[in-house]
Amino acid sequence: MREFVEQILRALADHPGDIRLAELAGEQTTVFELRCHKEDLGKLIGKSGRTVGAVRVLLSAFAAKNGRRAMLEIVE
User: Fold this and answer.
1) CA 69, CA 76: separation in Å to the nearest integer?
2) 1: how many CB neighbours lie within 10 A of its CB?
3) Is the dihedral of CA 13, 42, 63, 70 positive or negative?
4) Cα–chain-centroid distance for residue 44?
5) Per-residue model confidence as pLDDT tens for the chain (76 residues)
6) Could you say which architecture CATH assigns to the domain 2-74?
7) Which residue ranges make up each domain of the chain?
8) What is the DSSP string of 12-33?
């Protein structure tokens, strides 16, 4: 699941080497914390949060297929 999210975010970013994704796994829920280059922050969030919203939908669908829950949080 982590590789899936990381691949999507790296494809969207201008500085893909600065994408850092921390995974905090619980019993049923996994939280991904995203850290990225300052210039990529707006691009990854998108207009009105649409881009990050779409990534969250994909992540949730992928996790549900495996019987889990997943969340993506952006950390500055």
Assistant:
1) 23
2) 16
3) positive
4) 9
5) 899 999 999 999 999 999 999 999 999 999 999 999 999 999 999 999 999 999 999 999 999 998 999 999 999 8
6) 2-Layer Sandwich (3.30)
7) 2-74
8) H-S-GGG-EEEEEE-SSEEEEE
- CA–centroid distance for 76 within its chain: 13
Strand, helix or coil at 45?
helix
Tokens of 9: 């975010």
Between CA 12 and CA 66 the distance in angstroms is 25
pLDDT of residue 76: 80
pLDDT value at residue 1: 87
Q: How far is CA 3 from CA 27, 63, 64, 68, 73, in A?
A: 20, 13, 16, 16, 16
**Predicted TM-score (pTM) of this structure:** 0.89
